[in-house]
Amino acid sequence: QVQLSERGGGSVQTGGSLRLSCAASGSVYDINDMEWYRQAPGKERELVATINRNERSYYAASAKGRFIISRDNSRNTIFLQMNNLKPEDTALYYCKAVPWVGELVYWGLGTQVTVSS
Predict the structure, then answer these.
(1) Strand, helix or coil at 40?
(2) Is the pLDDT of residue 91 over 90?
């Protein structure tokens, strides 16, 4: 089992920055990919960025150039540095952990990001 705890959400104005973190505990050595998703009210959950244990990253088009995902394997934590935030970035941001094998994945409870114009 893996437990995920997100932190760092908050309210900022357009153009501001926030840094989210997601700390994993439990069977952390089973984890390969860790990912950030977000879900805005009335919309489906969407992928923001991913990073694997070798720190290879991927960004959704909406995040590319503004967000940076990073990973500290020694602390079993990933980060999402979000810059130049826009009102459309307002959402509940979730962390997801994907093990090396199997179909079971793990989700955190989310942290709210609100960007005002």
Answers:
(1) coil
(2) yes
Tokens 């094998």, located at residue? 101
Nearest C-alpha neighbor of 106 from the set 70, 72, 76, 67: 76
Q: How far apart are CA 105 and CA 80, in angstroms?
A: 20
DSSP 43: S
Find how far residue 14's CA is from the centre of its chain. 20
Residues 6-18: tens digit of each pLDDT = 999 999 999 999 9
> Please, which residues have CB within 8 angstroms of residue 31's CB and are 6 or more apart in sequence?
2, 24, 53, 76, 97, 98, 99, 100
Q: Which of 85, 99, 104 is nearest to 8 (CA)?
A: 85
